[in-house]
Amino acid sequence: MNQQFALKAVVLAATLVFAQASQAINIESKSAVLYFNADSSIFGSPATTVEPWNLVNGSSSVLAFCIDPLTWGIPSVTNYGASSYAPSELVRNLYESSYSQIFVGGVYNENKAAAFQLALWSVTNPANSVVLAETGGVFDHNDEISHDANTWVQAAKDYQFNGAAQYSYTEYKSLDHSSQTVLTVSAVPEPESWAMMMVGVGLVGFMGRRKSKKSEQFAA
Question: Which residue range or ranges hold the Ice-binding protein C-terminal domain (predicted)?
């Protein structure tokens, strides 16, 4: 009976995974900040508008950032595959030190998000591939965006990681290479939350085992 219970648990887990994988995943424009600075450059071209995304999976929507700046981003592409992502030290440090800055008073700020996108490109690509002048931006907030991006890149370089990550990472890749590869993060539960989760799992297992034993006694 215990084996049957374990088999049912495996089947249920596989069903949940399949249900999640079968959801149509697409990206949508999160915000369109006008950014242009001829003195700045991204891979040798004048730095232009950067666009964070909403990544939509079923009824859920999460903030996503491009980690593939050489591919044009196409909204509503649905053929995405998800996989875990192991960040480099600089990417991890950038998220640990500055990701929370995107939300001002808990509210999403599109200028801060644009700055974070530029900072992310700076730390995921070879040195000097993204050069951001802090003056000369054409539109309102352009200089502030460049300043924030440069500040956060430096903060990532200076950050002392204590071994306790705040985030886990998921990469979403366009399966036919028709759009950008994007990165999302989710908060890592606090130790107390992990403990409560393990207690819950243990209780479920205990109840299942107890039920199995009762069934065996009844059958006997």
Answer: 187-211
